[in-house]
């Protein structure tokens, strides 16, 4: 058994490079010594694919080749393999131009093939990667460093997954803003301080409001309004979306329970496809409805295609079960990139919500108008009704009605509003 002392250098067995633990030890030393360091982070993107295509031996050979290359890359830089598909380099402070030049060289090398020999066979292997680099300030801690890496990695995940990212002031400000938002979200999850607004949905056939969508609202403790368009995707990334959805579910059920006479057929809540597969999903929905004495027919669930990533059969089963209890589903954000239309339409949705980008297609061009008419026909033939989202003008409302879109949600009729305002809004209607 090897007993390591605290300051011992430990290495990755495959490449012989220093490992994650040693990386932090070295960083700590620089920080303690008040030294500004250049940190380079290299994330391989296709290691799994290489392993699948050529076998693990070739994948290992590739990492060894890269290790060799990085080890001898530049005087003063130490290379690390910090996890399966990640390398780091730690070097001295240098002018930004020099850092850029070095990154340019590394990137160029990674665009070329690597020669890997196993059992006498030669393979030419390509492996994509992205690169993040920054100067670590002496006052920064290990946690700051980790936060920077995580933030930059999520920027890559959310935007394009290629190229070089220099962690500049802008990215730093962006990161601090995200930190603030996530602190507020965490606080709101713990204290259930989210508010729920409701946006009425107009039915063209009946000529009145028949439904509403619940939309979460969050004000930071300093009163700043935080947009769900921003914090919901962040909550998804940070694993908080489930907790948020359960809070919304409870608040909406309570509101429905407190207003048995509300002149609406139902209210919809936003959920994710993954949640439907959560084994506690049905229980939570039924539990909340029971607790507040609300009939299932008064609840609708909106999900976007984006969040249904697997197991359509199971999703279909849960949807069918809840539909049997009166709880129907809407397909949300239709028109924002439907890669799998056939699968989506095989799910038992009650209605399809046409995204604002589709509705905007009606502005002007004949082609746009024809497309919407055609999509509407397809949906109607499949027995779905359509909710048009983001209708802002009388002109759009008229066009939507002419295309026989069944329901309309948008600022033209009403903006989202607090529950009590919804009650008076509907009384006045
Ligand atoms: P969404 O589900 O597509 O919700 C509709 C969004 O369009 C809402 O934005 C609504 O305020 C906005 N909207 C409605 N009519 C108009 C209009 O005429 N013009 C324009 N420009 N916008 C209109 P909001 O409330 O900012 O929510 C943004 C997104 O955040 C939602 O998009 C949804 O994806 C997410 N979200 C909101 N509340 C929740 C929630 O409780 N749970 C979950 N999981 N996501 C939520
Ligand atoms: Ca929605
Ligand atoms: Ca939508």
Q: Percent of residues in helical segments?
A: 40-55%
Adjacency order of strands in the biggest sheet: 8-9-11-12-13-14-15-16
Strand content: 15-25%
Distinct small-molecule ligands in the complex = ligand C2E, calcium ion
Structure classification: alpha/beta
| Poorly predicted runs | none
The Cα radius of gyration reads: 27 Å
Mean pLDDT: 92
Shape: elongated
Number of strands: 17
What is the number of helices? 16
Major beta sheet, specifics?
A: 8 strands, mixed, barrel
Between the first and last Cα atoms, what is the distance in angstroms? 78 Å
What this model shows, in words?
This protein has 429 residues and is of the alpha/beta class. The chain is 45% helix and 23% strand. It has 16 helices and 17 strands. Strands 8-9-11-12-13-14-15-16 form an 8-stranded mixed β-barrel, surrounded by 5 helices. A 5-stranded mixed β-sheet has the order 2-3-1-6-7, sandwiched between helices. A two-stranded antiparallel sheet has the order 4-5. Helix 2 packs across helix 3 and helix 8 runs parallel beside helix 10. The relative contact order is 0.08.
């Amino acid at each position: 058994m090897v007993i390591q002392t605290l300051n011992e250098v430990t290495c990755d067995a495959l490449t012989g490079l220093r490992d994650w633990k040693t990386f932090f030890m070295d960083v700590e030393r620089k920080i303690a010594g008040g030294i500004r360091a250049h940190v380079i982070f290299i994330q391989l993107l296709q290691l799994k694919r290489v392993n699948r295509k050529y076998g693990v031996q070739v994948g290992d050979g590739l990492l060894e080749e890269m290790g060799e290359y990085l080890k001898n890359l530049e005087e003063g830089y130490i290379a690390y393999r910090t996890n399966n598909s990640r390398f780091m380099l730690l070097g001295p402070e240098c002018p930004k131009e020099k850092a850029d030049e070095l990154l340019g060289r590394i990137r160029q090398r990674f665009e070329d093939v690597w020669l890997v020999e196993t059992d006498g066979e030669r393979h030419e292997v390509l492996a994509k990667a992205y690169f993040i680099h920054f100067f670590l300030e002496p006052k920064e801690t290990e946690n700051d460093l980790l936060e920077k890496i995580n933030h930059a990695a999520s920027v890559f995940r959310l935007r394009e997954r290629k190229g070089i990212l220099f962690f500049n002031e802008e990215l730093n400000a962006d990161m601090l803003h995200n930190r603030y938002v996530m602190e507020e979200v965490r606080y709101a999850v713990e204290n259930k301080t989210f508010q729920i607004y409701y946006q009425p949905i107009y039915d063209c056939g009946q000529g009145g409001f028949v439904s509403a969508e619940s939309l979460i609202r969050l004000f930071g403790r300093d009163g700043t309004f935080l947009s769900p368009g921003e914090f919901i995707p962040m909550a998804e990334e940070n694993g908080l979306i489930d907790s948020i959805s359960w809070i919304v579910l409870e608040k909406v059920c309570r509101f429905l329970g407190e207003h048995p006479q509300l002149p609406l057929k139902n209210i919809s809540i936003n959920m994710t496809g993954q949640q439907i597969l959560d084994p506690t999903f049905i229980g939570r929905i039924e539990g909340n409805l029971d607790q507040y004495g609300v009939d299932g027919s008064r609840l609708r669930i909106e999900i976007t295609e984006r969040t249904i990533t697997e197991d359509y059969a199971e999703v279909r089963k849960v949807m069918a079960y809840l539909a049997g209890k009166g709880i129907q589903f809407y397909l949300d954000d239709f028109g924002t990139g439907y890669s799998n239309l056939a699968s989506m339409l095989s799910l038992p949705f009650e209605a399809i919500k046409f995204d604002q980008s589709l509705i905007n297609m009606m502005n002007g061009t004949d082609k746009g108008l024809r497309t919407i008419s055609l999509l509407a026909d397809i949906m109607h033939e499949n027995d779905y009704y359509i909710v048009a989202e983001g209708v802002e003008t009388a002109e759009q409302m008229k066009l939507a009605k002419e295309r026989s879109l069944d329901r309309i949600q948008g600022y033209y009729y009403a903006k989202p509003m607090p529950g009590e305002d919804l009650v008076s809004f509907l009384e006045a209607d």
